[in-house]
Amino acid sequence: MSAAFSKVYVDRVLDPGYRNWKRLYLKDSLAVHRAHLVMLEERSILPPGTAAALKVAMDRLETEFTPPERIPEGNEDLYFVYEHELERLAGSEEAAWLHTARSRNDMDNTVFRLALKRELLALLRSFADCAAVFLERARKGEGELTVLFTHGQPANPSTMAHYLSAFLLEFLESAAAIGRALDSVDLCTLGACAITGTGFAIDRERTSRLLGFAAPLENSYRAISSSHWLVLPAQALALAMGDITRLAADLLHKASCEVGLVDFPDDLVQASSIMPQKRNPVVIEHLRIQANLVAGTCSSIIDLFRNVPWQDVNELADAPVSDFIAAIGDARSCIDLLSEAVAKLRSDPVRAREICLRFGVTTTELADTLVRECGIGFRAAHRACSAFARSGLDKAVLRSAYREAAGRELKLGDAEIDSALQPERFVAVRGSAGGPAPAGMVGVWAAAEAGLGALTGTIAAHEERDRSAAAELAAAWALFGSRRSR
Amino acid sequence: MSAAFSKVYVDRVLDPGYRNWKRLYLKDSLAVHRAHLVMLEERSILPPGTAAALKVAMDRLETEFTPPERIPEGNEDLYFVYEHELERLAGSEEAAWLHTARSRNDMDNTVFRLALKRELLALLRSFADCAAVFLERARKGEGELTVLFTHGQPANPSTMAHYLSAFLLEFLESAAAIGRALDSVDLCTLGACAITGTGFAIDRERTSRLLGFAAPLENSYRAISSSHWLVLPAQALALAMGDITRLAADLLHKASCEVGLVDFPDDLVQASSIMPQKRNPVVIEHLRIQANLVAGTCSSIIDLFRNVPWQDVNELADAPVSDFIAAIGDARSCIDLLSEAVAKLRSDPVRAREICLRFGVTTTELADTLVRECGIGFRAAHRACSAFARSGLDKAVLRSAYREAAGRELKLGDAEIDSALQPERFVAVRGSAGGPAPAGMVGVWAAAEAGLGALTGTIAAHEERDRSAAAELAAAWALFGSRRSR
Amino acid sequence: MSAAFSKVYVDRVLDPGYRNWKRLYLKDSLAVHRAHLVMLEERSILPPGTAAALKVAMDRLETEFTPPERIPEGNEDLYFVYEHELERLAGSEEAAWLHTARSRNDMDNTVFRLALKRELLALLRSFADCAAVFLERARKGEGELTVLFTHGQPANPSTMAHYLSAFLLEFLESAAAIGRALDSVDLCTLGACAITGTGFAIDRERTSRLLGFAAPLENSYRAISSSHWLVLPAQALALAMGDITRLAADLLHKASCEVGLVDFPDDLVQASSIMPQKRNPVVIEHLRIQANLVAGTCSSIIDLFRNVPWQDVNELADAPVSDFIAAIGDARSCIDLLSEAVAKLRSDPVRAREICLRFGVTTTELADTLVRECGIGFRAAHRACSAFARSGLDKAVLRSAYREAAGRELKLGDAEIDSALQPERFVAVRGSAGGPAPAGMVGVWAAAEAGLGALTGTIAAHEERDRSAAAELAAAWALFGSRRSR
Amino acid sequence: MSAAFSKVYVDRVLDPGYRNWKRLYLKDSLAVHRAHLVMLEERSILPPGTAAALKVAMDRLETEFTPPERIPEGNEDLYFVYEHELERLAGSEEAAWLHTARSRNDMDNTVFRLALKRELLALLRSFADCAAVFLERARKGEGELTVLFTHGQPANPSTMAHYLSAFLLEFLESAAAIGRALDSVDLCTLGACAITGTGFAIDRERTSRLLGFAAPLENSYRAISSSHWLVLPAQALALAMGDITRLAADLLHKASCEVGLVDFPDDLVQASSIMPQKRNPVVIEHLRIQANLVAGTCSSIIDLFRNVPWQDVNELADAPVSDFIAAIGDARSCIDLLSEAVAKLRSDPVRAREICLRFGVTTTELADTLVRECGIGFRAAHRACSAFARSGLDKAVLRSAYREAAGRELKLGDAEIDSALQPERFVAVRGSAGGPAPAGMVGVWAAAEAGLGALTGTIAAHEERDRSAAAELAAAWALFGSRRSR
Q: Contact at 8 Å (CB) between C302 and B300?
């Protein structure tokens, strides 16, 4: 351990790792030390007096220990630096007992899982906040006419509520996937030691509970070798980010000045330094970029494990975990931007109406009306309306095309035709389940409320477990000194 | 529709799509037509007599319709070819009614989901079969000594049961992820029409049930625009494939002739055409390649949606779905290979023992023994054993190192030292939860059984739902004619 | 070799590989056999008479050998099936001499390189054809007014020539990258044997030349282990495909009915089965999908090599090579679609003019005019024009804003202002290098011509080398019999 | 410009971008300002006196301007902050002239290219340093016996020179790819303005030369829209990193204690905190991880452009460029580690010999010897040697197998057989081009020297151009004031 490492190795590997540990994992590692010592003591694995002595030293280090900026010569990692401090205070013989029945393998893995759990929980909170913004904005969008597109062309009139709630459900499904991925992180690997556990009579349930995990991970080799706790969250996050890139592409189209269906206030718009007329909704472009860069890091983490021996490997250590934690931070930035953009999203129903009439968008409903009220088949009605749309909505063309298709005169008067073409009517009749009319939206709102409720429930349950575990660990730690004196 | 398309467009887009449909989706599309017609009839949306006439024609087409090899001139897709046949039999006016209250958007999406459900269910069966093979081989591996590695170096003795059950749990977690992804496919989008549903009084619950879906998807815009039904299964499959590449890397190392811990029979081994001594366990290499190529296609499908407008787009159509279905077939090939390799995997406990003693693998346990029985701290024990390992297990070195570390003589005799170094003893004392000793494996076996049980339960539930839906559709279809005659 | 292989192994590995070989590599492998035998004979490595006997048998097999559909029992691959046929004709002792001083490693690798070279050359021809279409369409677009966008908003008037030539240069740069990647394929690995060459006095230059390669690959271990011949072409192809996805996104925006700057004839447009008004330019969507799927396969091939030992591995064999060859075919389909779309691309200068004036696109030039002719600074001019643009081009606003910014009256009259706002004038003054005015385009056309010339030159050079190598091999083979009789 | 931006937008987009600019691009942007002003002045585009006034102010700012830590309220980016400072010193009217005939589009793009050029040049230097280390270590490895593997099994004896030079050639090919990618960065886009150039009579050749670029990029729209300057370097870097992951996998196998062919000194090896016997060559694992993470970022950058409209977009701005620059830094760390590992790589010829004889590795040469000296065919010789290898090199088995295959007695004596099996002989006879014997290595060394020479030549040429451009710009800037006073 005291061997001098190659300078290149220290500069390129050990010191960067040490800095990651200081920045991201020190606090969790102290909690792991405490929980482990409590368990060792409760199971009487240490010689009498040792645990108490360690406790005193560890309590002092909790306030006194400030790791140096750069890794001290001859140390591999922050843990050894900490252990040396412990040796200084408690004596070398005593200090070493803390590492009984564990390895850096299980200790580090447990620390990474604690840190990742906290980050994923924060991410879920960002999702929940954004989902609430979406729901509120969508609710305001009931009756707010818009046009929805397929293949880049205006397809049907609908409402902003219908559109935004659709994405909200997509978003909540991604959040649920992240929640489930969190379950695979939420397993305690302490006690797996190097890979096969230990001959000491440890209690893995106890340390798991003291650290706030759902349960110990069942197989000690898998505990150290599995990548699922990184890959599953990375996949779930990539799912959410991918959807955001798609929403961004759709919003950019809707926000282009030729389409003009949606708009953002000036505080989200940038100008050009050379083109006086430009108003660039770059907030959406940045949304796209941030989402794609996060998705890229997720892919990077996932692909990292390709063909890597199914063993304990350093891919499961601080470098990738820290990159992933940074990506989660970027994802939260992206979701904050999304919340801001959605909260401030303005739509233009007048323009929506104009597009509907200009491009014959509502002729679909006219065709359906012909089917329902004139008793001709769907295809014939479609053909007549197609000619009508191509003519620029010339009713004479409609009538003659109908005559040709149906073999009889169209019985609808001009006013009835006009009424069938109203975008508002198009929306109003679409009350089938999942459609934009209020009746169609009943199940949609219920699903959105349920999804958001499940998400906030997941968050609350994790917070509660974290709180009670912290309290239990603090209590055990406090009790611990007193019992020791018996 | 009758417009002649550009020859390049037909050759490069329409005809390949048509061939995909013929090969993969025709059968499901006929089921969708039936379920849709039953529902239209039950909801009295069609004129009296129309449904009965369509039924007669559709029943004839069920046996008579053989789509031509190449897409007929002027058709966009197989659906229009089918509709033309229907027009021929039932008359153009009647035939068109079948497309009432639906669009190709929802129809196609429903067909793709049906096809994908079937493939994913077959995939889950391959997983279940392979998991059963794993479990059986792992059970045989209780007490079968092996060496497990960390960072490519021999780390701990363990058992094949411990090792294989660890991977089995990983594998079952992936299978569970595929099962959950299947839930996102298992939602019926029929009735979403283009994107906003319809003004006809359709019953989406009914068609969903007749086709064997769990439920209709709630929002009609999302039904047509979401990519989750492709992305979620692709991610889950990629997870499983990624793990297989890691297992392959580990097995290749264990199977290398210098390590020699595992071996395969001759019927899985290839020779060299130039090197007489070679016995290449290429089955594992092919496992790696097949898994990586499937993972590559999964990534391809996932990345396809980057920045694609959140609308109905052709990324959600036959080209990517067919590629994904091919990848599922390749994944099943890969899993069959894995089953074969695991079933025939032989391990060499004698070589395991040799490696343990040759490379001082069991000195970890000697260190633990010193801690437990001699009352010295973990670090001092580790230091003494480290010197012992470096010396090539020279007991004099151990004794002197112990003396230096502990300040007293080592009280263990040579026989006790030898006993502490036995690999079998190393394994036997590791009965902490998740360790290789029988006590440690109790929870592992329970978890494996539970996981396999859940997987077979998922499969059985889907099969049962598919069976009962098919029966309900057949019954409704049969009834349908008779009622119509009323 | 005669060992019976596991049925699963045959079905999942050997037979699929055998079918790949039959379909894609048989012809090239026969050429390799010929070239190798010629060289062995020229170097007097074989016993007298052996080569002549082999030649007779090989000539017979050239016409007679039809490999069975499924791999015959007990064979590993197509090569052994061929060798057995050779043994049947020439006797087992003689037949075996053909494999002197080579291994399947170098033989297969050489065959894969030959096949890949041919496919890449065909791909370059597709690029050259498409580039010629682009150039022709771009030439027609001189003076054809359009609007170009930044961040999705109309930015500057320009010409179709400027726009299409820009992409053409991008496209030619990708083609050049593919050409360079082809250089890394175009190295002969025959003679590398397993990995270290041979003790026989072979002539690697000779076989390389007879097979039409540029040169032998220098190091025999690298010859068998390198992935560059797959990864470099995959990267270059992915570059081209990525650009096409970007062009598709831009064209889809320009082709949306609200923007309406470009359009396609009916034979490239699809209708909706439910929305009578729809005209979907799905040709561009299919371009996007095909390009992305090819890019996905390229990534799959590239990622396949992650962490794969730098040795001879089966990742360098038929499964990935065949997938890549299929992707090249798909890329050619995609490029054919692109040619078709570009050849038929119509633009609408009237709509371009309308957008320019409606959205104040030309105020950039007004600002420049103020700078050039009124002597105010750029920022002040920009500010005045920005107010003018926001006002909807109200000249009173411009004058007052100018007054405020410049501290004096605007000396331009209304006609001069109007003239400065003309899109045609905007284009006409932009003659700086690379701009859309004829003077600006001089260097652009030169670069495009040069790029296309280089591409056709590369193709011609390869074709010429292939032709002369085939002739040389045929001549050597013919001569060979006669010399043998000496 | 003075509009207050949304706080979220400032925190999540503008401020992070501003910080990127301060950290990475400020210096280059000042050079761009200088070159632009020199050109404007030389072309007499500015009013008399303006340029001189700007020069004075810019000279002061060169030393005085320290941008505030956080982006000042109401600014979009660092450029506007700088311009405001310039306005403060030179007056608002004068300051604005600096932005004549340019846009942030071309200015930023030029700055990013300058920064990226510098980073790529530094990267090439790291490649050259590492290649030199490789070459030196490879030279030392002439005659240093080792074993090379195929499919994870020992295949042929060879030398460390053969092995390391093979990778060196791979590495130099990647470096050459990076060099070519640098050519696509090395094009000046200044003067492209927004996207169509300008009506001012600028001189793009001049600014290009003053900034050290090879040439101006030809088409102004492409100048702003192309992603090649990011994608091509990312692909080339990914190629190099991918190879390193493969080398790492191979070295880890060779360094495993069971194989024992290579080893690293203690200063590159880490111990276990729980397993006294462990010596983990984790330097190679970290090499693998660092290379994969860099490759992951490269993929992230490449995939970022999927389906992004082929326009000026923010994907071409500071966020991705800065990520890519960070990845280049990580790549250099990785290459430094590689240099360190290769320089200190020790191999064990004794172990190599042992493996050869233990696993019958040299029977390939015995088979060749039988072919060459006993006149039997390759296949028969191979069959006899295969039986010999399986017997554990029992000569009686060889003789009887030979007799069966050849129909006569083996004429080689035991000593001759033993000699044919010597690994040293195996290597010595392999003098065919590219083989490990000195004759085979001649072309290998020549290729390595040529590749390294080309690489150092590329670096020197860039350095020389940068130096002379800096001198030319400084001279023009100095002259500039004096001429202005005319």
A: no
Residue C387, H or E segment: helix C378-390
Tokens of C89: 């004709």
- Neighbours of C (≥3 Cβ pairs closer than 8 A)? A, B, D
Residue C313 C-alpha, separation from nearest chain A C-alpha, in angstroms: 13
Measure CB to CB from residue C278 to each of A153, A256, A275 and give the nearest one: A153
CA distance C375 to chain B (A): 44
What is the DSSP code (8-state) at residue D24? I
What token pair was written down for C72? 């015959």
Q: By the 8 A CB rule, do D141 and D346 touch?
A: no
- Confidence category of residue A368, pLDDT binned at 50, 70, 90: confident
Which residues does chain D have within 8 Å of residue B255's beta carbon, measured at their own beta carbons? 152
What backbone torsions phi and psi does residue D19 show, to the nearest 5 degrees?
-65, -40
pLDDT at position D482, please?
Answer: 56
Pair D58, D145: CB distance under 8 Å = no
Query: What is the full per-residue pLDDT of chain B (486 aa) written as tens digits?
Result: 345 899 999 999 999 999 999 999 999 999 999 999 999 999 999 988 999 999 999 999 998 889 999 999 989 999 999 999 999 999 988 898 899 999 999 999 999 999 999 999 999 999 999 999 999 999 999 999 999 999 999 999 999 999 999 999 999 999 999 999 999 999 999 999 999 999 999 999 999 999 999 999 999 999 999 999 999 999 999 999 999 999 999 999 999 999 999 999 999 988 776 677 777 889 999 999 999 999 999 999 999 999 999 999 999 999 999 999 999 999 999 999 999 999 999 999 999 999 999 988 998 889 888 988 887 877 788 889 988 988 888 999 999 999 998 889 999 999 999 999 999 999 999 999 999 999 999 999 999 999 999 999 999 999 999 999 999 999 999 987 654 443
In chain B, which residue's Cα lies nearest the Cα of A180?
Answer: B177
SS3 for A107-134, per residue?
HHHHHHHHHHHHHHHHHHHHHHHHHHHH
Two tokens, residue D248 = 């790492």
Q: Which of C95, C231, C253 sits opposite D309 (nearest CB)?
A: C253
Residues from chain D contacting residue B252 (CB–CB below 8 Å): 152
pLDDT in tens, B38-69: 999 999 999 889 999 999 999 999 988 899 99
Torsion sign over Cα B90, B91, B92, B93: negative
Give the DSSP H or E segment for B347: strand B346-347
Buried b (16+ CB within 10 A) or exposed e, A454-482: ebeebbeebeebbeebeebbeebbeebee
Which H helix or E strand runs over B147? strand B145-150
Q: How far is CA D3 from CA A277, C390, D11, D18, D486, in A?
A: 16, 15, 16, 17, 42
- Asked if B103's CB is within 8 angstroms of C307's CB, the reply is no
Residues 6+ apart with CB under 8 A from A471: none
The rounded distance, in Å, linking the Cα atoms of C234 and C181 is 9
From the candidates B1, B2, B6, which should be mutated to test the interface with C, based on the most C CB atoms within 10 A? B6
Helix or strand or coil: residue B100? coil
- Chain B residue numbers touching C301 (CB-CB < 8 A): 296
Length of chain A: 486
Q: Is the distance from CB of A220 to CB of A191 less than 8 angstroms?
A: yes
**Rounded to the nearest 5°, which phi and psi values hold at D224?**
-95, -25
Q: Is the pTM of this model over 0.95?
A: yes
Nearest to C152 among A154, A256, A275 (CB): A256
Please give the angle made by the CA atoms of C425, C427 and C431, to the nearest 5 degrees.
110
The answer to whether C313 contacts D151, with C-beta atoms less than 8 Å apart, is yes
